[in-house]
Amino acid sequence: MTNTELVKRIDELSKKYRDYTASNLSKIVKIKSLSSEEKNVQQEVMRQMHEAGFEEVTMDPLGNVLGKIGNGSTILAVDGHIDTVDVGNIDNWDFDPFSGEIDKDFVYGRGTVDQKGGVAAAITAGRILKEIGVPKNITYYAVASVMEEDCDGLCWKYIIEESGLKPHFVISTEPTNLNIYRGHRGRMEMHVSFRGISAHGSAPERGKNAIYMASRGALEIEKLHERLHTDEFLGKGSVTISEFVSGSPSLCAVADSARFHLDRRLTWGETKESAVEEVKKAINNPDAKVNVLYYDGKAFTGLEYGMEKYYPTWKIDEKAPIVQTGAATFRELFGKEPLIDKWTFSTNGIATNGIHKIPTIGFGPGNEVMAHAPNEKTPVDHLVAASAFYALFTHKIVG
Question: Is the pLDDT of residue 30 over 70?
Fold first, then answer.
């Protein structure tokens, strides 16, 4: 089959399976799957992978589902996390978040964009590959990963470090509005704690008020945000206080403890160590303690697994082979130049590339502005395009 014939055949099959892909997405949207509660949806994902002709379908001890086609030495993984955030205020929705309703243009419901649509498209890509054949030196994995909303990258940390599967290339199906993404800012979570000395509220001068110390520190964090580093591609680093708590023996006493939570977004060149030192220097208080937090989660399988809440910044050079292959795939399928850009939020790429340096790009159905938002929906045309992209990329990455 010539390259022209290959592109045409993949395009035809992705359109032929339009309703199939939308229906598969609808089925998994109907199953609520918060982080650590993905068991039922993963059973449906496994059924869909078997139906699509995947040669091996397995669930690892953390609950990740991996569908495999081919047995080549070069491994491509197409990843989509199957967990979602909750619906929030139901009054903000114009439809049932778990209806999985389909019309001629969209599939509706929580997770259609973030990120179940990518999983459905990756399964259809597997079906297309089974029909046209997988290059002999390629192994294709569609991965439905877990617990991403609670801890980005935890699932892939487990897959690589515990299961021993380390792909040569990864496509994240996080929503890109059918653009090609090559990175995003990292992030980390910190607590800054202040220890005071309590005294009776009638004589506060006898004590040392931790709230006052923390408040002064909070104002310095606000100033710190303004002077953080900027990267031409990824943009500016940021820091904000997302929680402020305090404690005292009673409401008639000076507060003897206070703490705030920092959400720190890291641009290129910023590290865990540099971010911690910046906070310490900004606050300049020997009674303050800065801690990077740790996530210790329990999967639906019962396995307890965790990692530090430091999620490294990553970006791939635009001239890198994986980006150029993605661009060539896009041009051949859609007849135009792709927009090569970045995510605003964080993804599992922090583990595949940020930690383990696996060449990673993003290409996903849906617009990221719909992620975590009410009235979430993804275009059916996007599902068709994504399934074609993953299938053709599998053939083109061989070179």
Answer: yes
Q: Which of 11, 60, 83, 270 is catalytic?
A: 83
Q: Which single residue is written with the structure tokens 């939020």?
A: 345
The whole-model pTM stands at 0.95
At 357 the pLDDT is: 98
148 is catalytic: yes
Mean per-residue pLDDT, 167-184: 98
Q: How far apart are CA 328 and CA 308, in angstroms?
A: 37
Whether cis (ω within 30° of 0) applies to the bond prior to 43 is no
Tokens of 35: 């982080």
83 is catalytic: yes
**Positive or negative: CA dihedral 351, 354, 358, 364:** positive
325 sits in which H/E element: helix 321-334
Q: Which two tokens stand for residue 241?
A: 């206080």
- Cα–Cα dist 120/218, whole Å: 44
Q: Exactly one of 11, 38, 114, 148 is catalytic; which is it? A: 148
CA distance 245 to 253: 16
- What the block records as the tokens of 313 is 């910044």
| pLDDT tens string 202-214 | 999 999 999 999 9
Distance from C-alpha of 45 to C-alpha of 148, rounded to nearest angstrom = 17
3-state secondary structure 251-297: CCECCCEEEEEEEEEECCCCCHHHHHHHHHHHHCCCCEEEEECEEEE
In the chain, the domains with their CATH numbers are 3-184+313-396 (3.40.630.10), 186-298 (3.30.70.360)
